[in-house]
Write a structure and sequence with these properties.
The structure is a single chain. Helices cover about 35% and strands about 15% of the residues. It is an alpha+beta fold. It folds into 3 domains: about 35 residues, no CATH class; about 130 residues; about 140 residues, Rieske [2Fe-2S] iron-sulphur domain (Rieske Iron-sulfur Protein, 3-layer Sandwich). The chain has a 4-stranded antiparallel β-sheet, with no helix packed on it. A 4-stranded antiparallel β-sheet has the order 7-8-9-10, with no helix packed on it. The longest helix is centred in the N-terminal third of the chain and has 32 residues. The chain is elongated, with a radius of gyration of 33 Å. It is a multi-pass membrane protein. GO terms for molecular function: 2 iron, 2 sulfur cluster binding; metal ion binding; monooxygenase activity; oxidoreductase activity, acting on paired donors, with incorporation or reduction of molecular oxygen.
Length: about 350
């Protein structure tokens, strides 16, 4: 409720008469309000009903059990549902691993929250502020508080609950470590980064239809996503297909400052790998006025008028350029494969 005292927001001492405030001498503004303290404690149902307390414990155990099942499911899926290079197998593997990981982590989180809300002490407490370095007495009190907290959690008296907690915490890290361990001994042939499905005379076709494209079809300022001829029907693994994606842009030839190789473009049409040299995201956002290609993941920006050199962002090298020309029918074709590795830099290619 507000009161109008007939002046512009000011207060007299009488305005605070009967209230628990502290006024400085000669000042009408309260320096502080007294701490009202804690309200009356309301016991939970589990605090007064042993059956409800036991029910809450079973619920916490059930949540830990969900975490355990999720972790076990993740481990089983990791070995049983392996991606075989097809979209369907990769989707199934990712779905199974994702569900297992989600249940493993969600079960632990929900169990911890429910345990704290229903089984642990819920009395409000406070402590006064002290100097940053506590006295030996205070440190001893802190240690005792930790011991009291362990005792308050009742974990020592709840064997089933303790077993569920330990099991879920022991299994969950496997969902993070197992994929890393699984990489050991797998194919580390980095020469695969140095070649793609492009070759001399292979036509540039529109992604994903596979229709060959003529130079005359590409207007100034337009951007076309292309793949090697025959790739849409190819049985090549997905990683090989992913490395071959290319983006072509047509500029006014007078706007081209430089290119990575002499004669690698055709009448203002330039072709660059679509894979960002930072972490491999697809580069697909083109600004016609600035001739900049933008990677949406981390904002690496490349100037296609200047050999796709990096003008902004974390990428450490230009996008590899695909040498192109036209055949006798006017279709765009590759002169060769890329002359450098596509994709992110790695330990043998720092720039």
């Amino acid at each position: 409720m507000t009161h109008d005292h007939g002046h512009d927001g000011g207060h007299d001492a009488a305005d605070f008469a009967g209230t628990d405030v502290v006024l400085r001498e000669g000042d009408t503004t309260p320096e502080k309000f007294e701490n009202p303290g804690f309200g009356p404690h309301r016991p939970r149902k589990g605090d007064v009903d042993p059956a409800a307390n036991k029910k809450a414990e079973r619920q916490v155990v059930a949540l830990f059990a969900i975490s355990i099942l999720g972790a076990v499911g993740f481990i089983v899926a990791y070995f049983a549902i392996r991606p075989e290079g097809t979209v369907e197998s990769i989707r199934a593997s990712n779905l199974a691993l994702g569900v297992g990981l989600a249940l493993a982590l969600l079960g632990i989180g929900l169990a911890a929250v429910h345990w704290a809300k229903t089984l642990m002490n819920d009395h409000e407490k406070f402590e006064h502020r002290h100097a940053q370095r506590s006295t030996p007495t205070v440190r001893a009190e802190a240690v005792q508080t930790l011991k009291d907290g362990v005792e308050d959690s009742a974990i020592g008296r709840r064997g089933l609950l303790k077993g569920a907690l330990v099991s879920s915490l022991a299994l969950f890290p496997l969902t993070l470590v197992l994929p890393l361990i699984g990489e050991v001994g797998e194919d580390w042939n980095i020469s695969k980064f140095k070649r793609t499905l492009w070759s001399r005379g292979k036509k540039l076709t529109i992604d994903p239809t596979g229709r060959p494209i003529k130079a005359a079809d590409v207007t100034i300022g337009s951007v076309v996503h292309v793949i090697p001829e025959g790739l849409e029907d190819s049985l090549a693994p997905l990683d090989e297909k992913a490395k071959a994606v290319v983006l072509i842009v047509r500029l006014d030839p007078r706007d081209i400052v430089s290119e990575q190789g002499v004669g690698w473009s055709y009448d203002g049409i330039v072709a660059f790998s679509k894979i960002c040299t930072h972490v491999g995201c697809p580069v697909a956002l083109y600004e016609q006025q600035t001739h900049h290609l933008l990677c949406p993941c981390h904002q690496s920006t490349f100037d296609v008028a200047d050999g796709a050199k990096v003008v902004f962002g974390p990428a450490s090298r230009p996008l590899p350029q695909l040498p192109i020309t036209v055949d006798d029918e006017g279709y765009l074709v590759a002169q060769s494969d890329f002359h450098e590795p596509v994709g992110p830099s790695f330990w043998e290619r720092l720039r």
